[in-house]
């Protein structure tokens, strides 16, 4: 890899990541992950020797390839690269980097651009779920400028409309609208992202604290770990000690005209905003009678619109529920407007691989 690897660095939603064609990376997952650790500069709290930005939201990778699934144009594998640990995880999706997958597919010639706009059908390899991203391509080129604004990102950009068909898995992984985990009432919901909904008050916080204040609360962190471990078992996710799912979202009454106020943890770092798929799961959970947070939410009387407040603003979604043949709740429609911007397109040169038996 001394010649470097083709890479496109892009902001997708409120995250930033390195996008690669699968063909430009090793086919062997172990070799691929070792290379990505060197590219991103991990393990190192500053990621000083790589592309990573010293935070989980800026240490992400999207691997894109043509899809063999007739329902999709491209496959998108999301990889979370740990900052200060030598770990790469494929155990979750990322709805923020998803916003850049369609434009990346056009940039790399995987999907032809339309004359006005382009829709790219995407299979999220991590979960098998599908999404369709639609964005402007005037004259057959991706346009990144526009007037769409999303909280947590300065300025404006072209809108990327992402629509999610109903997933194949259950909306309620435990089969219950409400459970208890580590003695705390929770609702476990999966509308694209396994998420545990918790009333902030049940953990002795308001839910309006800053991310830093919440992260500095060591007692809260221990309770979150306990809730997460027990909820994961109930959700059939197994041992999640090295995984970033399920997400934990604290709920409080809205303060700024939205449906609910949120603070989300990955797993005990507090998200400065909220992930797209996590917000979709929150929105679905709020519409379930008896769910944790349903009594706190202020939902519109009609329509599917849900505004989810987070530490740096809000995220707007369309989320409608229905029922399946057995009467179980299902997501009927989920859609969100995000933005993406190409930051750098070129060649990244990874840190040299350590010499066996030598210093690391």
Automatic annotation (TrEMBL):
Superkingdom, taxonomy of origin: Bacteria
GO function terms (MF aspect): isomerase activity
Keywords (A to Z) from UniProt: Isomerase
Keyword Membrane found: no
Name of the top EC class for this enzyme: isomerase
Enzyme Commission number(s): 5.3.2.8
NCBIfam families xrefs: OMA_tautomer
Family classification: Belongs to the PrpF family.
PANTHER family in the cross-refs: ACONITATE ISOMERASE-RELATED (PTHR43709), ISOMERASE YBHH-RELATED (PTHR43709:SF3)
Name used for this protein in its record: 4-oxalomesaconate tautomerase
Organism: Streptomyces nigra
Taxonomic lineage of the native organism: Bacteria, Bacillati, Actinomycetota, Actinomycetes, Kitasatosporales
